[in-house]
Here is the input.
Amino acid sequence: MRQTINTIIAFFIILPALLLSYQLGTPSISNTKAGIGEYLNEPALKIHPTKAIKTVPQKTLPSKRQDAKELETSANSVLAFDFKQDFFLYEKNINERRPIASLTKLITSAVTLDYSRLDEIVSVSKEAIQTEGNSGFLREGELLAVYDLLAASLLESSNDAAYSLAEYTGNKLVSNQETNTVPVRAFVRAMNQKFNDLGLVNSNFSDPDGLEDSKSFSTASDFANFIKYLRNNPNYDAIWKILKLKTYKTQSKNNIASHEFKSTNSLLDELDGVIGGKTGYTNNALGNLLLVLKGPNNTEIIYLVMGSNDRFGDMRKLIDWVNESWEWPKQK
Here is the structure.
């Protein structure tokens, strides 16, 4: 009888421990570093990301000063976003759809890097050099590396370079069953698919350079979240390396031409802590400007003005306003 009672007591002691052990368990293989690495290296069209749930310690968030003044700018949409903490510092019409002009080239660069290496060689086509608008003065038939064309597109805002990247990468995307598909159209479809996969559904693109601004649009909110994605993904480090450059010199691999691409972002010389930036302008879009700056407490802040009559002046006002209106807690 005593042995039976001892057995029953032991059963009720061991059972909860077994259940707890089962619940704690070990992580599934999909959460290991190898699994995450494989996910990051997947092409964009296969990525279906889910939002991570994270809790930001309250002590790292800034507080707004009581004497903060109103911000006045000419821009239609304005945003300041502490994206590491998912904290908006300033919002104006951030869900309004607007043409983004040459900010589009950041998406073109990202899709290019999803499918092409930096050292791959591209032959510049006649169609590329006939592209309207800003030109990197490329020559038909010259051979340039993908990195060279990224620099021309992001610094000089070269439409012929953006077209060359889209044409080259688009040829990889055209399947055997779609031989009649124009490569640049296939590339633009990948641009839209990338935004859809990221859940950024208030955007649409119809070309790789932002010229077709009557058909292409995004919102400050969508675009800022795309920039957050670019900053958090090491696959796009080359973009940020280029965006910090004031000039970039290169020569075509077949010695047809030499090039010096100069940044259109005049604020590179004015501001400290610039991580990267991109300009954009068309008559319909007006002035657009993106800047990513280092912020207090190891934060990074995305600044964006869209539809501005004075994009650089409005950006200065926005940055000054954030610095004067918000206070971050001191870190030990």
Notes: Residues 58-327 form a domain with the Beta-lactamase fold (CATH 3.40.710.10). The two ends are 64 Å apart (CA to CA).
